[in-house]
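Researcher: I'd like a structural prediction for the single chain below. Treat it as a standalone chain; there are no partners to consider.
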Amino acid sequence: MRAKPLVSADTLRKYSPADLDDTLDSMQELMALMQVQKNSKQADFRPYLAKYRESKKVIARLQTIKREREIAEGVSPRESKRAHKRAKLDAYKKQLAEANIIIQRPKSTKLRWKKRKAAREAAKRK
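Model: Treating it as a single chain, here is the predicted structure.
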């Protein structure tokens, strides 16, 4: 007989979109910490193995419910992935802006080679 899940899909479906995102983020952070703990092999991980497996299942449920809602809204998988990437990038840019960090794009390699070539030709003419 299987144990009853910690969080059922019916309970998760009642969550608002913001709560669903927050729960998913916190579960993914917990999963990352547990993954590090599991891979470090410093401590015996066996007592936490059940919680680790259950966390993976909860994350899968959360992602499934999130995708079900997107399908109901008529969002294609491609649009969903783009929106997710864009949201992550915007959050990263906001974090950089708050820390007053400016990242400049590197100048074009073509432009650098053109300048070098022009400098070499100018040196040859002299």
